[in-house]
Amino acid sequence: MRTKQYLLFFIILACFAIIWGQGNDFTSTKKAAQKGDPDAQQKLAYSYYKGQGTEVDKGKAFYWWKKAANQGHAKAQYNLGYMYNNGVGTIVDKKEAFSWYKKSAEQNYYYAQYMLAYMYDKGEGTTVDKKQAFTWYKKSAQQGHVDAIYRLAEMYYLGEGTGIDKKEALYWFEQISSNKYYARRALYKIAVICYNGEGIERNISRAYWLYKILFDSDVPEAKSDLANLYSNNEKLAKEGNNQAQYELAYMFNYGAGVNIDKKQAFYWFEKSAMLGHVEAKLRLAEMYYDGEGTEVDKKQGFNWYKEAAEEDNVKAQYELALKYYVGQGTNTDKQQALYWMRRSAEQGYENALYQLAYPEDFRTEIDDEESLSWQIKLANQGNIDVQEDLFNKYYKGEGVEKNIEEALYWLDKIAEEGNAEDQYYIAMLYYEGKVKGKTIKIKADKKQAAYWMRKAKENGSEEAKTAWDELELWKYE
Question: Is 0.85 surpassed by the pTM of this model?
Answer without folding.
Answer: no
